[in-house]
Amino acid sequence: MLPSDLEAAISRIENPPPVLTKHDFVRRYSLGEFGNRSPTWDTIHEAIRDDLFYSGLIHIRNRVAGAETWYNVDPTMAMEKYQECLSKGWKPDQLYFSLMAPTEKTICQGEVFQSADRGLALYYTTVAKPMREALKENAIQVYGIRAVETLKYYVDPSSYDWLQVLLERYPSHVVEFSTYSVELGTVPGMRTIFWEVRMY
User: Model pTM?
Assistant: First the structure.
């Protein structure tokens, strides 16, 4: 029989609490709870101390659901852009930073969830632009077996398997993802970044 503290730890992994706020999501995302992600920093000061920060473009992200986000920021200009955000009223604890994914290598991106009446639901696009822009330009909605087969066609097998884990662990949540033509992120061998897990 397992010790009670180990049982509790396993239970938290298999049955995590729901994601109720964007702040909660970002904290758990940064810890790697949701799987493969872009390298991410909690503050601008953490970011600029990391050599990895200077290896590509930066995405300044927001802890406020649906709020503004800034793509393709040159890392040498990130502090200036950050100060500009503060001057517009954003607070330091509302912003966090990720390495920008190679948007031009996007093959599929979107949102997936288990619907109450139509099975798996997938809202996606194959437009190679940042997700908000891409979904506005051309989005497709499919359900059930069509959603399953679409995901299997575009998403690499290990990422597809992890997506099933996320959907099982986080019922009533939407999983936001992007799949690329190259491996990238914090988990070796994967081509899919899981950007967000949130209640719907």
Answer: 0.90
